[in-house]
Amino acid sequence: MRLLIPFLSCVLLSSAAAQDAGVEGVFSLGVGARALALGRAFTSVADDPTSIYWNPSSLPLLPQKQLSSLHIPLYLSSAYDFFGFAVPTRTLGGFGMGAMNVRTGDIEGRDRDNVSTGDFNYSETEYLLSYGGMVPRIPLVSRVLTPLYAGVTMKLVHQSLGGSSALGAGGDIGFLYTPTALRGLRLGLSFQNVLQPTLKLRQTSDRLPLSVRGGVSLSSSLGDVGQGLVTIDVHKATSRSMKYCVGAEFNVRRLFSVRAGWDGDPALGFGVTYWKLGFDYAYVSREPGPLHCVSVGFRIGRTIAEDWIAVKRREAEERTRRAEAERKAMIEKHSAIAVELYRKEDYFGALGEWQKVLAFDPENSDAERWVGQITDKIQSIQEDVIKDQELLALIKEQIDSGIEFLTKGNYDGAITQWNKVLSLDPTNATAREYLEKTRTLLAGEISEHSTTALQLEREEKFVEALSKWKEVLELDPQNSAGLAGVERVSKRIEEAQHINLGFEYFTAGEFDKSAIEFRAALALNPENKTAVEYLRRSVGRKSLLEISGDKEVWRLYLKGIEHFTRGEYEEAIRVWEEVLELDPENENAVRNIEEAKLRLKKASER
Question: What are the record keywords, sorted (predicted)?
Fold first, then answer.
């Protein structure tokens, strides 16, 4: 057994320096060839399934479901392996699971007298189950640390040696802060073995030590060339001296990466990405010999952003389908009512119903034919009713004009014509009947359009609702409900347009433009949570919280947004220049002024 101890020390990859008295766990090396090539400075970087080991709080920030594996051939037929699976969600945080294993076989056992006792095997496996999510807003804390993410990993450790085995349970916790004021900056903190697993193998009991890691990383775009990353970790384990880890990475157009790191020993590596597959290699200098680490990853399905866009597209298609079905149902309903009213010789009622059919389907040939037929019928009736020959020509002209207005749905013009007839013949029963029924039709159509518009608003079909409110105003230009509805729905449509355009810019990576659109949406509706959230994600150098810190600056800033959204670019520039007088460092105002000047220039070139 004495010969076994130094052998296992090598196999279990203790990375302690010779002068350290403490002992780290068998899995202290870490997981992921990329992380190992970065000198294990991965606490704040963790952006793949290895997050379940390094820092589970980063799981919700993964763009899509991913698989990751690691294999390290060790010495004397030993091996070190990892497999992980991560599932981020848009609203529920991120989930992960995985397993780590180190094993060796054919170890020669000897007793105290150095007599061979036969060969035996050693294996240790750690099963991990993780969850990470955004920390809810907490007074005071949220003012400083927003957004803040937290995560937890529960693990089960199984150890076997020869015919003996041990089982222990433990847990890790981690935190991640991604300040919006500086895009690309991430700060991570991880506590491994907060719940320390205890393993009792035969007569020996071991407790895995508490390990604390803190890290900061900064990634930055290098234009068309690629992207760079610098990361630093500080690592302290129980009874071990402080260890510093640093790493750097250069990524060429998300296709090829080169890496270097140092954690007391140097490490190098590279990575290749093709389609949804990723391959990473790391060379890690260790005693008694270097480690060759290989990882393979696979991204599954669509990204969270793509899923969200697909859901919205399906919802829009379903709304369109329902609207078309409702339109056809209304055409059938009003057509049936019109035919029945005509049979009962209620020609005005029938005419009104056919007008409603034409409102739903302006090209409806049956409705056009019936309108012509009813118009001829009404004109025939009028010719029989009017008795005064001296006024016949003039009254007929006015009535014909009124009927023409009525058939075109111009109730205001028709009412004017009926009043002209009554001014010539105050006792004209036909004109009075036309006038009363026209007003009834007008009121009924206004009521129906208003009711439909309100229903469409409740169903968030704002384009259709705006059309209905405009139809109300065409019937009655001074209708207060119609005026208010047009103003209200126009703002909602404009808000939605800014949101949709913001999403397009956001998905395309044009974050400055997306921020302008989300700010414009907030100017129309400061309570729009989607705009607030995606503005936070889009802002590159200054957060919404910092912009709104000065009430006067914030008031002028929003006033400029209002002018901008109405196309009043010169006025918007003037207001934003007032913002710069109060806050010369306000980058958002500078960018907005540039955008407004660009739009002025485009307008002048037309």
Answer: Repeat, Signal, TPR repeat
**Banded model confidence at residue 45, pLDDT cuts 50, 70, 90:** very high
Which regions of 285-392 does DSSP assign to beta strands (E)? Answer: 291-300
CATH architecture, domain 4-301:
Beta Barrel (2.40)
What are the residues whose beta carbons fall under 8 Å from the beta carbon of 409, sequence distance 6 or more?
355, 358, 359, 445, 475
Query: What gap in Å lies between CA 503 and CA 589, rounded to an integer?
Result: 21
Quickly list H helices, 386-461. Answer: 389-407, 411-424, 429-458
Residue 96 has pLDDT above 70, yes or no: yes
Return phi, psi of residue 361, to 5°. Answer: -145, 90
**In this predicted model, which residue has the larger pLDDT, 51 or 77?**
51
211 vs 585: CA distance, rounded Å = 42
Cα four-point dihedral sign 395, 400, 406, 412: negative
Q: Has residue 305 got a pLDDT over 80?
A: yes
Helix locations, 548-586, DSSP H: 551-565, 569-582
**458-488 residue pLDDT tens:** 877 777 877 878 777 777 778 888 888 888 8
| CA distances (Å), origin 462, targets 103, 497, 562 | 64, 11, 20
pLDDT attached to residue 10: 47
- From the CB of residue 327, how many other CB atoms can be counted at a distance below 10 Å? 13
Segments of the chain assigned to CATH 2.40.160.60: 4-301
Residue 126 · residue 156 · CB < 8 Å? yes
